[in-house]
Every structure is written in structure tokens, then in C-alpha cells.
Amino acid sequence: MQTLDTINQTLNSNDAVMLYFSAPTCNVCHALKPKLVEAITDQFPTFVIESIDISQTPEIASHFSVFAIPTVLVFFQGREFLRKSRHMSVGEVIDSIERPYNLMLA
Questions:
Q1: Which positions, given as ranges, span the membrane (predicted)?
Q2: pLDDT tens, residue order, the chain (106 aa)
Q3: What is the CATH number for 29?
Q4: What is the DSSP letter of 95?
Q5: Which secondary-structure segment (H or E) carries 3?
Q6: Dist CA 45 CA 51 (whole Å)
């Protein structure tokens, strides 16, 4: 089971991390997640993706000030770069992270 410590360890030991916050009752979350994970994995192979179920670990959501689902947080080198909640498209997320990701790995 995830803890705040394990999430922080992931953030500190990887250059590119996406946290995906959702809940079992969120239909949008379940529709968006596989498409987003596939796109990120295909285009940005070094990204680490962590899925966080806010119904099981509300303390992680509150630590990151996540109050709506789905929420995507993207971190580069341990620092939050992007925050998207509720209404987002896969293309929007990809477009937002493509340039900084490529610069970081260049």
C-alpha cells in the first residue's frame, strides 16, 4: 500500500513522475487513465506513473491539496510542474509536458 513516504521517495528518486489521483466511484477517472498512461508510456518512456486511490489514502490527496478527481500532477526533478483536474484531455497533458521533458533529457 502506498504511503506519503513511498510517494515522496518516488518523487525524489525519479526525474519525471506523474501522480494520478482517482477513486473507484469516478467513471471519468477510469475512462481517462488507460489512455493517459498509454500515451505517457509511449512518448515519455522514463516517466514513472503512480496511481493514487483517494478513498484508500486520503492523507496523500490532502498533502498534495487534491480535492477533485481525476487530478494529474506532473513533477520534474521533484518539483511540481503541472496540475490538471477534472476536465482535461490526453493531448492537453502531453502537449504541456513534451517540451520540458525533452529539454530535461537532452
A1: none
A2: 789 999 999 999 999 999 999 999 999 999 999 999 999 999 999 999 999 999 999 999 999 999 999 999 999 999 999 999 988 999 999 999 999 999 987 6
A3: 3.40.30.10
A4: H
A5: none
A6: 17
> Considering Cα of 11, then 79, then 75, then 60, what sign does the dihedral take?
positive
Answer whether 20's CB lies under 8 Å from 85's CB. no
Domain count for the chain: 1
Report the SS3 class of residue 62. helix
Q: For residue 8, list its beta bridge partners.
A: none
61, 23, 45, 92: CA torsion to nearest 10: -90
Dist CA 102 CA 94 (whole Å): 12
- Strand 48-53 relative to strand 16-22, pairing: parallel
DSSP SS3 for 52 = strand
